[in-house]
Every structure is written in C-alpha cells, then in structure tokens.
Design goal:
This is Cytochrome c553. The protein has 114 residues and is an all-alpha fold. Helix content is 54%, strand content 0%. The chain has a single domain, classed as Cytochrome Bc1 Complex, Chain D, domain 2.
Length: 114
C-alpha cells in the first residue's frame, strides 16, 4: 500500500501501518544500497544519544536503539528533506551525508536487542 507523496511520513504511521506511507525516493534507495560502517556510526552516535537515550517513558524524544533500519534511514532523510517538522532534527540531519546516515543505521542496527 502506497499513500500519496504529499503525505508527511511519521514513524508512528510507518510502524502502525506496517507499510511505507510514501514511495521510496531515489535518494533513499541510494542510502539503502550503501553498506554502512558501524564503527563510523558509533563515532557519530554520541550526538544522537545525547537526546535519544531510551531511558524514559516520555516519547517526546523517541528511543532509536531498536528502530528498524529502514525506519531509521527514512526518518533521517525526511528530516534532512524537511518532510518532518522538528527544527533540531532538521538541523542535525541536514549536516549528515548519505554515508553518515548509512553508518548510523548500521551502528544502531548492530545495537538492537534480540
């Protein structure tokens, strides 16, 4: 199921529906094709973990540790493209290139609990 491109994706809509809320863009496909370096992702992750600790029941800042890889990448690309509204995340994501996003996704995927 694919919904209109005008739909602003949100993590909750992606996870609740179990489908993508908008078609995957060429930009997102390019990032999915990159084999991210988890060691580089670990190096970059300190800025993420400053806020996204996952040690609270307050999901105003959601945990990212167990986020599916695809959802993690889509979220960062959406913030970078300003499809998601959050000035802090837009600023952070705007500084990340495709390699950095892939590395962060690889690192956080490797950290997932089973």
């Amino acid at each position: 199921m694919i919904v209109s491109m005008n739909f602003k994706r949100s993590l909750s809509s992606i996870m609740a529906m179990g489908v993508l809320a908008a078609p995957i863009s060429a930009e997102e496909n390019a990032i999915f094709a990159i084999e991210g370096d988890p060691d580089y992702g670990e190096y970059l992750s300190s800025e993420c973990l400053t806020c996204h600790t996952g040690e609270t029941d307050n999901y105003a800042i959601p945990p990212i540790k167990d986020l599916p890889t695809e959802a993690f990448i889509l979220a960062l690309v959406d913030y970078r493209s300003k499809l998601r509204e959050n000035p802090a995340m837009q600023m952070i994501a705007s500084r990340l290139g495709d390699q950095e996003i892939a590395a962060l996704a690889a690192y956080f995927t490797a950290q997932q609990t089973e």
